[in-house]
Amino acid sequence: MTQQRQTAPRAALALTLLLALGMFAGSASDALADKTEAELKAELRRARGACQGAYPGWLRGIVDAYTGLVAGPVLDVSFVLKKVPTPEALKTPDERLGWGDGLQAGYKAGLDYGMELGKAARTPTFKIEAMNEASERLNAYTTAQCGAMIPELDWDTTMMNTNRTLTLTSLTLAYFAMERAANANEFAVGAENAARCAREAEAKGDQTGAQNCRAEARKLAESTVDFAEMAKGFAGQREEAVQAVVDAEAAVEKARKAADDAGG
What are the tens digits of pLDDT across the range 178-197? Predict the structure, then answer.
């Protein structure tokens, strides 16, 4: 997922941070008066950690759901804290605590997105609204925690499993492979529809319509192959992306069969 953020004005960003930290639970003046400087700094450090944990959690959630490692709706995702180690780059207890907060929030949204993405890569139907809602939840969370100021992590050294074999980079590439597999399946479903259109037109004696539908089926089959190849390119030899390759290859087979069935 590509996130494009515009730098917020300093005043607006400050207000966002204060709201996100819950400092306006009562009146602003009372809340500020009740906070010591040390407490404010601790909350800001925790928010920083939450920002760093949200997107990694999102990626791990997508991959876990897409591959079936986690299936069905999950209310309590605290188990992800044992699956993903806290980055050594986070030195303070507040940042590390915040990392866990963000990891769980991102993971929950990622699971919801990944479950629908898996359906999109394997079936004709999926809920795009659910995927959009999950994405919006992630964006809302990170915006509330730190606005446009998202701290960076080293994607090649941030480990995403306890065996230390998954990194942010490898999960990202696996996610890209899954998206391309879903695209491939979308074109394959389109090829099937076009083949059906050709058969129906042929049955009605509409030769021009049948020919147009056949051409469309062939075109969509070619696009399926293109996206399947992209999926394989992103997947490489990564174990976490094996399912995406399987899905992409199944889409190609389905599209080719549709093109053949269209006749002509």
Answer: 999 999 999 999 999 999 99
- How many domains, the chain? 2
Alpha-carbon distance of 49 to 51, in angstroms, equals 5
Distance CA 39, CA 44 (A): 9
pLDDT digits (tens, 9 = 90+) for 201-235: 999 999 999 999 999 999 999 999 999 999 999 99
Domain check: are 106 and 190 in the same one? no
Helix (H, G, I), strand (E, B) or coil at 150: coil
Of 111, 102, 62, the residue nearest 81 (C-alpha): 102
Q: Are residues 158 and 179 in the same domain?
A: no
Range of the domain at 39: 10-162
Cα 21–102–163 angle (5° rounding)?
A: 155
- Owner of token pair 């037109």: 201
Q: What's 127's DSSP letter? A: -
Chain-centroid distance of CA 264 in Å reads: 40
Is 142 in the same domain as 193? Answer: no
Domain boundary among 162, 196, 228: 162
